[in-house]
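Much of our argument rests on the idea that a fold can be written as discrete symbols. Part of our work consisted of pairing the sequence of a single chain with a tokenised description of its backbone. No coordinates are needed to read the tokens, only the vocabulary itself. The record that follows shows the chain in one-letter code together with its fold in token form.
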Amino acid sequence: MRELSYQQLIDTVKDALEIKEDRVSVKDEAKVKEVIDDLIYTAVFGEEKAKELARWLIRATALELGIVPSSIHDLYTKGMAKEEIPFWFTVPAMNIRGMTYDVMRQIFQVAVENNAGAFILEIAKSEIGYTDQRPAEYTACVLAAAIKEGFRGPVFIQGDHFQFNAKSYAEDPEAELERIKALTKEAIEADFYNIDIDPSTLVDYSKPTLKEQQYHNYINTAKMTAYIREIEPEGITVSVGGEIGHIGGKNSTPEEFEAFMEGYLEELKKFGENIPHISKISVQTGTEHGGIPLPDGRVAKVKLDFSVLEKIGEVARRKYSMAGAVQHGASTLPDELFHKFPEVKTAEIHLATGFQNIIYDHLPEDFKNEIYNWLKTELKNEWKEGWTEQQFIYKTRKKAFGKFKREFWDLPEEVKAPMMKALKEKFRFLFEQLKVFNTKEIVEKYIKPVKVYKTKPE
């Protein structure tokens, strides 16, 4: 991979693509695959003018090849909500924090080899910051990886945990809402047609009734749903997710969910009749993001309540035409649990830290030590009282992906190869356990991709 100038980009793609005003024609797909590594490297690390062109070329090429950023809304609200799908699968939503293009290539390889179409690539609001990956860059990585591996069809890119900060909200509710709106607008303009709104941080358990407890959660979820409907591209209904249980807090109940939905739907009606509502609901089942590290660095076993997913999911489908419940904080769970998610009809499962752990397990010791020394120096204020060094490193090492981004991307092939092999095995295992093999035709039945063309940057 190499970083190219604006003119070098034009010269590099001239035998592969014919560039037009708002799209490209693919002259030679084999040559596209040869040059895509340099395009994505420039899209991530190039100077601004070249970066913009590289991202546009990747996006236009993807559309031309039938790789189309899409919303999963109709699969959720028609196929899953009505239980019309021929078999139940749980959609994996995967947060890729580092080495993003290389890691995503493994996901698309597994998808192509196993005829899978029901999977999401996502990044959370917090990750956008500490991994130094704005939405447009993340989308470029998704589409470049799909091009490289010969994937075709809808691709689902998601904004995960677009979360309200409780302290900022208490100081100035409107300012915090505007910050979430600004990020959402940036994400949708970057082809994120799936957005998970998360004001669950605003739930107040000191209030006497469930509906009062959920008040600030549901009014802001309604405001954001209405805002998304205003700005989504014509022909696309963005899939919007809500959340009732802050991950790491107390377990959710069907009664909480119904209280939230009652307030949410009342509030949404104020913005107009027949506005499509949320397609799924995230709940707390006993997990914590990243798992709970023990003093020796191992991750504690979690008692996960599958009945929460099953009961709330059933109410969501029967009463509100939603896909069901969503599980967060799951990538560090024991392998023997994953087959249970489709069994209880979980709609979606979010996975992140387990992939990060595989990357760190395969890093050269000198690079790993350089990262850990940086953490101990630069993030020492995050070292909580009573934590061992192993616990501190486990909880903070995700924040090195932004600082050392280029170093991760530039790791030598002999380091990358076993790491990517292990990641591919993990993705294959998850896809198999979650039953997303052979979901491509199901996705294509419900999802009709809409190509949104954009003019080439000057």
